[in-house]
Amino acid sequence: MPQTKSSVFSIKSTYVLPTTHRHEYSKTPTSSSTIQIIVPPNQNNNNVRRSANYQPSTWRYEDIQSLTTQYGEESYVEEREGLKEEVRMMISKMEDNERLQLELIDALQKLGVASHFMVEISGILQNVYTNNQNQNDLYATALQFRLLRQHGYHVSSEIFRRFQDDEGEFNNTQELWKDIEGMVELYEASFHGMEGESILDEATHFCSNLLKEYVDEKKKKEMKNERSVELVSQALEIPLHWRVPRLESIWYIQFYQKEDQKKSAIITPALLQLAKLDFNIVQATHQQDLKHISR
């Protein structure tokens, strides 16, 4: 094959190379200077550089720089700190109730504020794992399993055997139809399985079929706006384990707002306000980052 000479292109520079405190340049390129770029030999002269056909951004520089938010102010950060202390007091009051502790951890994660309470969460889960106390019902068993697996604890999936019959099938009984929250928890827990854990594969198949039947029945009765139907539909669309936590927190903030917060031991006004405020403060930080990197 004949030797091909390297191509040389001259490109007129249209920019000024910025200087920093670490470097000094004897000459700054101007519009009249040229830059030589050496292009490697092309073995096939018929090759054409491919283009991805990227479209121009819909966000103009002026649009990005005009982003403003009030949640970057120090007063909101101070308010968040006060709400965090209120939630810590909630956690300490649940010291003797393992089930409520697990439900609160689940709520903190779904609302996107668990990162503020990792010390408390780690302590609770360590105690739960050490005590190795079996929960009484499907909901609590699946919730405990999911949270422990999610945080790296080795928990055997055999704990779900007691919800199966003698033939190794999950009991499709009327009681399970009543425990829809338990079925949702078992469905979510099944996505934390490891290779070879067939019982969790069976749980995924069993729960998905039963939950789809439940949603269809409710829709026939024109009851699709019930909270339980919303919760089931959300789980069936994409499992919690596959979702982006920060984006998912928006849905759960709106979902928990529909609860009677005066009767709930978990979803209190302070916790919901903390979730909203934290989301807005984090979003304000991202907006400032975006403005900075676009300059």
TrEMBL record:
GO terms for molecular function: terpene synthase activity. Residues 61-236 form the Terpene synthase N-terminal domain. Keywords: Lyase, Magnesium. InterPro entries: Isoprenoid_synthase_dom_sf (IPR008949), Terpene_synth_N (IPR001906), Terpene_synth_N_sf (IPR036965), Terpene_synthase-like (IPR050148), Terpenoid_cyclase/PrenylTrfase (IPR008930). Pfam families: Terpene_synth. Its cofactor is Mg(2+). One of its GO terms (biological process) is terpenoid biosynthetic process. This is Terpene synthase 10-like. It comes from Senna tora. The lineage of its organism: Eukaryota, Viridiplantae, Streptophyta, Embryophyta, Tracheophyta.
